[in-house]
Specification:
The complex is a heterodimer of chains A (315) and B (275).
Chain A (H helix, E strand, L loop, with lengths): L1 H23 L1 H4 L4 H10 L6 H11 L5 H13 L13 H36 L4 H14 L3 H15 L11 H31 L2 H8 L4 H31 L1 H6 L5 H11 L2 H29 L1 H6 L4
Helix pairs in contact in A: 1-14, 3-4, 6-7, 6-9, 6-11, 6-14, 7-9, 8-9, 9-11, 10-11, 11-14, 13-14
Chain B lengths: L1 H8 L6 H16 L1 H4 L31 H37 L1 H15 L3 H12 L3 H10 L3 H14 L3 H8 L4 H37 L11 H8 L8 H30 L1
Helix pairs in contact in B: 2-12, 4-5, 4-7, 4-8, 4-10, 5-8, 6-7, 8-10, 9-10, 10-11, 10-12, 11-12
Classes of the chains: A mainly alpha (315), B mainly alpha (275).
Chain lengths: 315, 275
């Protein structure tokens, strides 16, 4: 266990360093001149004064070697300083922190809804595999996965906001404005969670201890709660964590459509505006979070399930 | 476990023929789109904007008076071809990496699989945003962006299958006969594992199609004057109260295409399970 934690910790640090280096190197990878790119992003003019570029280059230390610049930048980043946004001229770290909170709220709400609906439905589907309910659920999950959210969201706005006047069409401030984005965002993870719950419960329900519990006279509901879900929930939780990592920056379309100032929209706007510091900070945070959640899930799975500990090496 | 699984797969795979036929019709329609399309999809007719469905314009016209049905036919080519191309690349890379990991074993295998574990959790939209920032918009960007992380599930699956196949008698026999490493990989390992991998490719197609459309919707995919289903949705969103058909049609096109290919993949997958 200690060895595993140590190893994963090292991998975590190596990954973060790698990503930060990649993020820092964006302007070089683009093949352009960073100083020119900065001025162009600021003034939106292709013809830039050469002396201004030279001045900025010296001012920002862009004439120093790459490694020295990276070390300097990394030092700032470790102190929580990602620099100023090219477009708004405000600290990037504040904007990213704020956006992360909003995206986290959106992601956690959507995943909570998905989990609450998917686990019971998946379990019921597993009780009679191949039955009517199971077949319906299989078809429904496939249909849901094939639905683009950039279609579902406008249609949802059209029906619930413009025609029925039940919900606001954008924003993320009041509980009622959260209903549509959370609902649309929850559908896809719900379908995947349902599938995994069903598969996992199928495995568990065939296990001897379920038969033993049933033959002891334990009712189906109690058997499911006490033995079934307890043993079958681990793959579901793993998938849930994977989705959490994915949704922290991945709900770009939903955030853009509903005008939610989250991480996905921040990244999208940074790309459109060529706002380099914002892009770097966003990338480091999103990937960092993904790696962190990934490591935490693996560690947790290991702590919960002793069976995995022996199997780890031979996987 | 075996009993429960058998029960789910005893019935013939539902709708394989239907989904296969729908997929075939869509592919043919997109392939011959320039011949089928009744109008020039780019021709504007500002006097007949938002014309409802009619004999002349089956799905009506959009905000510039362009024929929606013709635009739908030609717009599908971009998203579907990008999705298919990146899927083929992902499959190729995944199969190769998976076989090599299984063949190599040891620390290399472990390192590759750790990388796979990690990349699988990356949201592909964020990867695509990053690639757009690096390379600018364009078809090459899209293909690269959609391949960079999506080879990973193929690699994981292929590794599992290949490890199994390497323990089979016929591989042992081939090794004893002195067949080369690559001959065994190409003649035995890949052919015996390719069906489930191919089924998974079909299962992932819908997701790809939706991501490509999403990027076009955001203005980072297809660039004007070309258009695809995602960009058509984005354009018509402003007029959706006036003419809902313009939003419904491209969305349905994505939905039906994605669903048909997914069901086809599902069907092929169950057929494999039944053996």
């Amino acid at each position: 266990m200690t060895r595993f934690l140590l190893l994963r910790g090292l991998v975590l640090i190596a990954m973060l360093l790698g990503v930060s280096m990649l993020a820092f190197a964006i302007p070089w990878l683009q093949g352009g001149d960073p100083a020119r790119a900065i001025i162009q992003a600021r003034v939106a003019d292709q013809a830039v004064d050469q002396t201004a570029i030279e001045g900025l280059r010296a001012q920002l230390g862009l004439d120093r070697p790459f490694t020295a610049q990276y070390a300097h930048w990394l030092g700032d980043v470790l102190h929580g300083d990602f620099g100023l946004s090219f477009t708004s001229r405000t600290p990037v770290a504040d904007a990213v922190g704020h956006a992360l909170m909003i995206s986290a709220l959106l992601a956690v709400s959507a995943l909570a809804v998905a989990f609450i609906i998917a686990v019971p439905l998946g379990t019921i589907a597993a009780l009679r595999p191949g039955g009517l309910f199971d077949g319906t659920m299989t078809l429904l999950t496939q249909a849901v996965v094939a639905l683009p959210e950039y279609w579902l969201a406008p249609v949802g706005i059209l029906v619930f906001a413009l025609h029925l006047h039940l919900l606001p069409s954008a924003g993320f401030t009041s509980p009622s404005s959260m209903v549509l984005p959370v609902g649309v965002l929850a559908l896809r993870p719900m379908a995947y969670l349902l599938r995994v719950t069903r598969a996992s419960m199928l495995d568990v329900l065939a296990a001897p201890y379920i038969t033993a519990a049933r033959s002891r006279g334990l009712g189906m509901t109690r058997t499911l709660l006490r033995h079934g879900l307890r043993n079958g929930i681990l793959p579901v939780v793993t998938l849930l964590a994977l989705w959490l990592a994915g949704l922290m920056g991945g709900s770009v379309v939903i955030e853009v459509i509903f005008a939610i100032p989250g991480m996905g929209r921040l990244m999208y706007e940074a790309v459109v505006d060529k706002d380099l510091p914002m892009l770097q900070a966003g990338l480091v945070c999103i990937v960092g979070l993904a790696v962190l959640i990934n490591t935490a899930t693996d560690t947790l799975a290991l702590a919960i399930n002793p069976v995995l500990r022996g199997a780890r090496g031979g996987r | 476990m075996a009993g429960a699984e058998a029960a789910t797969t005893r019935r013939p795979p539902p709708g394989v023929w239907v989904s296969g036929a729908v997929t075939g019709v869509i592919v043919l329609a997109l392939l011959f789109a320039p011949l089928i399309a009744p109008h020039d999809p780019a021709r504007q007719d500002l006097l007949h904007r938002f014309a409802g469905p009619s004999v002349l314009h089956w799905l009506g016209t959009d905000h510039l008076g362009r024929d929606e049905w013709s635009r739908l036919l030609l717009g599908g080519r971009f998203a579907v071809s990008i999705a298919a191309l990146s899927l083929v690349l992902s499959l190729g890379i995944g199969v190769l990496v998976g076989v090599l990991a299984a063949r190599a074993g040891g620390w290399l295998d472990e390192a590759i699989m750790r990388l796979v574990d990690l990349l699988i959790s990356f949201p592909d939209v964020v990867v695509a945003l990053f690639m757009v920032a690096l390379m600018g918009t364009g078809q090459a960007t899209l293909v690269v962006a959609l391949t960079v992380v999506s080879w990973t599930p193929f690699a994981r699956m292929m590794r599992g299958l290949a490890r199994d196949i390497y323990h089979r008698d016929y591989v042992r026999a081939a090794e004893i006969l002195g067949c080369s490493r690559w001959f065994i990989i190409l003649r035995h390992v890949i052919p015996n594992a390719i069906r489930p991998v191919f089924a998974m490719a079909l299962l992932r197609f819908g997701h790809k199609l939706i991501v490509v459309g999403g990027l076009s919707f955001l203005g980072l995919g297809v660039q004007p004057p070309m258009s695809d289903w995602g960009s058509m949705l984005a354009e018509s969103r402003r007029y959706m109260e006036r003419e809902p058909m313009l939003v419904l049609a491209p969305g349905l096109a994505i939905f039906i295409t994605a669903l048909a290919v997914t069901l086809l993949g599902q069907g092929l997958d169950t057929m494999r399970d039944r053996r």
